[in-house]
Each structure stands twice: as structure tokens, then as C-alpha cells.
Design a protein that fits this description.
168 residues; 12% strand; 4 helices; Leucine-rich repeat, LRR (right-handed beta-alpha superhelix)
Length: 168
């Protein structure tokens, strides 16, 4: 545990001191996004374009995370225990790529359909059964949605006019 805390502190300090654009908090045994980090990165949040929280133990990401890191273009939350996203996730107007693979999502996060510039959505290895094709077709920049290893009912999907690459 102490090693994981030290790893988080080191990585945050690097970003703050060097004005980095990528905050890598992957594999830090985080069960939530540490509240104290909002203050620690306060001066550089608008410069952070990419965050990785992959392979932690996150069960929830608070709305504050999404309203704090407004400049995010890439977000990797792969390999956690998320069951849903807060509605604030839909406010990430610069987000181009989100990786939510290997979480515990059982429905497609509708918040993602609100992000007009999103290009790539990875939801591989969740428990998603249905897909909002029509809403996704309205996202003009969307190029790829990965839903491999989900119990999607393909018989119920109308895939005839899908405007993006759909990996099932």
C-alpha cells in the first residue's frame, strides 16, 4: 500500500513539476480517485490531455473527476470495477478516445453519446447487452466501437446503416 501511495505521489509530482500532458496512475491500487489529487494538480488540469487509471480497483469515478479534467482527449480506465459513469462524463467535450474495457458495465454508458468529438470507444469485456446504434450514428467523428466479449444480442440490432466500425 505504501508503495502504491508513493507511486501516485511521484507520478503526480512529475506532471505538476514538468508541465506534463499525461497523468499515468495505472496499477496504483486505487479504489477511488484520491480527493487530495484535485488540489495537487489544480494548476495544470487544463494541460492534462491524457489520463490512465488502468488496472486499479476503481468502483466509481465521481462527477468531480470529469468536471476537473475538462481538457481530456484520452481516458483509459481499463481493468477496473466500474458499473456506470456519472452524467458529468458527457461534459468532456474534447474527449476523442475512452477505454472502458474489462469493467463491470452492464449497459452502454449513454453519457458517451453526448460527446460530439468522440472517435473511439472501447467497451470490450463488459456485460453490455444492448447498443444505442441510433444515438451513436449521430456522432459524426465516431470511427470505432469495440464491444468484443459482451453478451450483445446481435439479433436485436439493426446494423444495416451503422456509420462506424463496430467490433462485436
Amino acid at each position: 500500500m505504501a508503495e502504491a501511495v508513493a507511486r501516485v505521489a511521484r507520478r503526480v509530482n512529475e506532471v505538476v513539476e514538468n508541465g506534463g500532458h499525461h497523468l499515468d496512475l495505472s496499477e496504483c491500487a486505487l479504489s477511488s480517485f484520491p480527493t487530495g489529487l484535485y488540489l495537487a494538480v489544480n494548476t495544470v488540469t487544463d494541460q492534462i490531455y491524457s489520463i490512465s487509471l488502468a488496472n486499479n480497483e476503481l468502483k466509481i469515478l465521481a462527477g468531480k473527476f470529469f468536471t476537473t479534467f475538462k481538457a481530456l482527449q484520452e481516458l483509459n480506465i481499463e481493468g477496473n470495477f466500474l458499473e456506470k459513469l456519472p452524467h458529468e462524463a458527457g461534459l468532456l467535450c474534447n474527449l476523442k478516445m475512452i477505454n472502458l474495457a474489462r469493467n463491470k458495465l452492464d449497459t452502454f454508458p449513454d453519457e458517451l453519446t453526448k460527446i460530439q468529438c468522440i472517435e473511439n470507444i472501447n467497451l470490450e469485456g463488459n456485460q453490455i447487452k444492448d447498443l444505442p446504434i441510433e444515438s451513436l450514428n449521430h456522432l459524426s467523428h465516431l470511427s470505432s466501437v469495440n464491444l468484443k466479449h459482451n453478451p450483445i444480442n446481435k439479433d436485436d440490432l439493426n446494423l444495416s446503416n451503422v456509420k462506424f466500425e463496430l467490433v462485436l
